[in-house]
Amino acid sequence: MVQAAMKTGEDAARPGRRRPESLGKLKKAARKLFVERGYHATRPQDIAREAGLGHGTFYLHYDDKRACFLAFVEDARLELQHYVEARVSASDGSLERTIAASLNAIYDYSETHPGVLGAAMTDEAVIDAEGVQAVPLLVRWGREWAEQVRRHIADGSAWADYDADIVGQAILGAIHQTGLEGYRSGRKRQDLVDNLTRFLVRALRR
Amino acid sequence: MVQAAMKTGEDAARPGRRRPESLGKLKKAARKLFVERGYHATRPQDIAREAGLGHGTFYLHYDDKRACFLAFVEDARLELQHYVEARVSASDGSLERTIAASLNAIYDYSETHPGVLGAAMTDEAVIDAEGVQAVPLLVRWGREWAEQVRRHIADGSAWADYDADIVGQAILGAIHQTGLEGYRSGRKRQDLVDNLTRFLVRALRR
Amino acid sequence: MVQAAMKTGEDAARPGRRRPESLGKLKKAARKLFVERGYHATRPQDIAREAGLGHGTFYLHYDDKRACFLAFVEDARLELQHYVEARVSASDGSLERTIAASLNAIYDYSETHPGVLGAAMTDEAVIDAEGVQAVPLLVRWGREWAEQVRRHIADGSAWADYDADIVGQAILGAIHQTGLEGYRSGRKRQDLVDNLTRFLVRALRR
Amino acid sequence: MVQAAMKTGEDAARPGRRRPESLGKLKKAARKLFVERGYHATRPQDIAREAGLGHGTFYLHYDDKRACFLAFVEDARLELQHYVEARVSASDGSLERTIAASLNAIYDYSETHPGVLGAAMTDEAVIDAEGVQAVPLLVRWGREWAEQVRRHIADGSAWADYDADIVGQAILGAIHQTGLEGYRSGRKRQDLVDNLTRFLVRALRR
DNA sequence: TATGAATGAGCATTCATTCAT
DNA sequence: CATGAATGAATGCTCATTCAT
Question: Is the dihedral of CA B159, B164, B169, B171 positive or negative?
Answer without folding.
Answer: positive
